[in-house]
Amino acid sequence: MNTREQQLASIAQEISACQRCSLYKAAANPVPGEGNPFADLVFIGEAPGYYEDQQGRPFVGQAGRLLEQSLASIGLSRKEVFISNVLHHRPPGNRDPLPEEVEACKGFMLRQLEIIQPKILSTLGRYAMNILLPEAKISRDHGTIKHLKNFPFVIFPLYHPAAALRSGSVMTDFKKDFEKLGRLIKLEKGELIMKNKEQPKGAEPQIEQMELI
């Protein structure tokens, strides 16, 4: 086990024993997050739902299947990214997180980000987004690149997959935003594309950086 894996495992143990708020009392399992400790891309959701609570893993229900399908559409698999939540125990009845619960739990997620050092943090839904971008609005800021002082990664807010499953218009935006995310990943990796333009015979081909539009 490498150092990052050990550090993330240590945080998972802390989450398992955490009693900073009352959510642990009704939860079946803690959901500390999982994935590649060296991931360039990290997803942060709001909180575990029913199936996540039962299995102790993030995004394993219908929303999780949509997330995995969307990852596949941009050439990634679940094992290549890291997935976590703001809260690590399920709120009863999947209700919205309370401010005191967020305050008690968000430090675990921030420590995970510090260990993994991703290039892109993609927040899923408004609660996860507002932890780092309190003035942002999901209807306005989804699918846009955000830079935050003192954080080495860019933030790319997405609608929550569960919201996409409930609304056709949100699903359309979700899919478009994922296409943008795929292009952003290529930019962050420094990949270039060839522009096939008419050029003088023997001239070097023109290479331009892919734009995110």
Can you describe what's shown?
With 213 residues, this protein is of the alpha/beta class. The chain has one domain: Uracil-DNA glycosylase-like domain (Uracil-DNA Glycosylase, subunit E). The protein is built from eight helices and eight strands, in the order αββααβαβααββααββ. The chain has helices at 3-17, 50-55, 62-73, 99-116, 126-132, 138-141, 161-166, 168-188; strands at residues 34-35, 41-45, 82-85, 120-123, 146-147, 154-155, 192-194, 207-209. It has a six-stranded mixed sheet with strand order 1-3-2-4-6-5. Strands 7-8 form a two-stranded antiparallel sheet. β5 (146-147) and β6 (154-155) form a beta hairpin. The longest helix has 21 residues, at 168-188. The termini are far apart.
**Uncertain spans, ≥5 residues at pLDDT below 50?**
192-211
N/C terminus separation: 40 Å
Strand order of the largest sheet: 1-3-2-4-6-5
N-to-C SSE string, H for helix and E for strand = HEEHHEHEHHEEHHEE
**Which structural class matches the secondary elements?**
alpha/beta
**What Rg do the Cα atoms give?**
19 Å
The largest sheet, given as strand count, sense and whether it forms a barrel, is:
6 strands, mixed
What is the CATH first-level class name? Alpha Beta
How many beta-strand runs? Answer: 8
CATH level 4 superfamily: Uracil-DNA glycosylase-like domain
Query: What is the level-2 CATH architecture name?
Result: 3-Layer(aba) Sandwich
Summarize the amount of helix as a percent range.
40-55%
Shape: globular
- What is the arithmetic mean of pLDDT? 90
Return the domain count: 1
Tally the helices: what do you get?
8
CATH topology: Uracil-DNA Glycosylase, subunit E
How large is the share of residues in beta strands?
A: 5-15%
